[in-house]
Amino acid sequence: MDIEVLRRLLERELSSEELTKIEEEFYDDLESFRKALEINAERHEERGEDIHKKLYLAQLSLVRNLVREILRIRLHKIVDMAFEGVPRNLVGDEKKIYKIITAFINGEPLEIETAGEESIEVIEEEKETSPGIIEAYLLRVDIPKILDENLREYGPFKAGDLVVLPKSIGRVLIQRDAADKVLIQL
């Protein structure tokens, strides 16, 4: 796993209407890569090697941005698949996300029990997330284009979309009963 692999995957996701086929252990490899970058940054910080530390932190930031965009695209495609009822090329927790969205669409309870591992939780209250966990929001209503406090534009979105948004926007959507928070562990 490296940054180039993530860039190529992003290009494939952007150019295809269907989910790009990825290896079953993609998310595990991604987490290992992310942890390796963090450990290298910490190691160079302990040695007082600021330039190397900054290099690893910049790579980590780039990885997070690439992953955020890949996940945003893949989640949108998973929502589309849930409406079509035909899952294809899903791996790991994506299968659980598909089940949650399908249950939501069909008006079934959203809680899904996982045997021994709590990878995805639909929650109502605000919790701080740790590294490797992405907050997404399952929208209950259509949302027009909106701006965050830094004037970045998001949307428009449709009811049933699973979207990654800043916490400030997500908090407002939850307070107005317009979305449910979904935590996704990488």
What key attributes describe this structure?
186 residues, alpha+beta, Methane Monooxygenase Hydroxylase, Chain G, domain 1, four-stranded antiparallel β-sheet, two-stranded antiparallel ribbon, 6 strands, 49% helix, globular, Gins51_C, coiled coil, Gins51, Gins51 C-terminal domain-containing protein
Order of helices and strands: HHHHEEEEEHE
Oligomer: single chain
CATH third-level topology:
Methane Monooxygenase Hydroxylase, Chain G, domain 1
Please tell me how large the radius of gyration is. 17 Å
Our measurement of the CA-to-CA distance between the termini, rounded to an integer number of angstroms, reads 14 Å
- Gross geometry: globular
Helix content: 40-55%
Characterization of the model:
The chain has 186 residues and is α+β, with helices and mostly antiparallel strands. The protein is built from 5 helices and 6 strands; from the N terminus they run ααααβββββαβ. The chain has helices at residues 3-15, 26-46, 50-84, 93-105, 167-175; strands at 120-123, 133-139, 146-147, 153-154, 162-163, 179-185. The strands form 2 sheets. A 4-stranded antiparallel beta sheet has the order 1-6-2-5, with helices on both faces. It starts with a helix and ends with a strand.
